[in-house]
Amino acid sequence: MKKNELSDIRPLPPLMLVLGYAGLGPFVLLSVMMLHAAFVGPGLQSSSVFGLYTPYLFISYSAIILSFLSGTLWSRNGYAPESTQKELLLLGSNFLALIAWLALILVYFSSVMTMLAVSLLIAGFASVLLFERSMMITNKSYWRLRLYLTGTVIATQLLVLFLLIEDL
User: Fold this and answer.
1) Which bin fits 43, alpha (ψ -120 to 50), beta or left (φ > 0)?
2) Does residue 136 contact residue 3 with C-beta atoms inside 8 Å?
3) Is there a domain that residue 14 lies in?
């Protein structure tokens, strides 16, 4: 088997699938709410859920999920094939958690910093996927799920970034 070849086709536990797809709910719902407010409603600035500004809810949920995924990288450190890779994985997982925290702080400064926060989160989610791929996880079902989930998350984040730019 070649390095990084996907060969294992075992099905994933049903709970993993349910939780993975359920986790997309807030990404999709909040981004659709912002899209509606921006183009049909009174504008993105008026978009809120229980009085909370929807873009900030979206960013905070994104940061929490990125932190969670960073923690899963930490726990998978034992599966990394080389000691240098293990060290990079530990450093990377901590760096991504700090990026998520930084995204939460940036929203307090300006609209431009809010766009930077979303951009950092996009890079963070893509990085988690790259880190996982480097760990030589060979389950095809897992990769299909991760690609779909991360692709959807990044698509919603790109939409939110577009809406924030349009709102300037």
Assistant:
1) left
2) yes
3) no
- Decide if 64 is inside a domain: yes
Q: DSSP of 83-131, one letter per residue? A: HHHHHHHHHHHHHHHHHHHHHHHHTTT-HHHHHHHHHHHHHHHHHHHHH
How many angstroms separate the CA atoms of 146 and 135, rounded? 14
Residue 82 has pLDDT above 70, yes or no: no
* CA proximity to 34, closest of 24, 49, 50: 49
- Parent domain of 70: 53-166
Residues 6+ apart with CB under 8 A from 85: 134, 135
Q: Which helix (H) or strand (E) holds 69?
A: helix 54-75
> Hey, what amino acid is at 25?
G
Residue 164: CB atoms within 10 Å: 21
Quote the mean pLDDT of the chain: 91
pLDDT for 1 beyond 50: no
Residue 23 lies in a domain: no
Contacts of 134 (CB under 8 A, 6+ apart): 4, 80, 85, 89
Total tally of structural domains belonging to the chain = 1
Residue 157 belongs to a domain:
yes
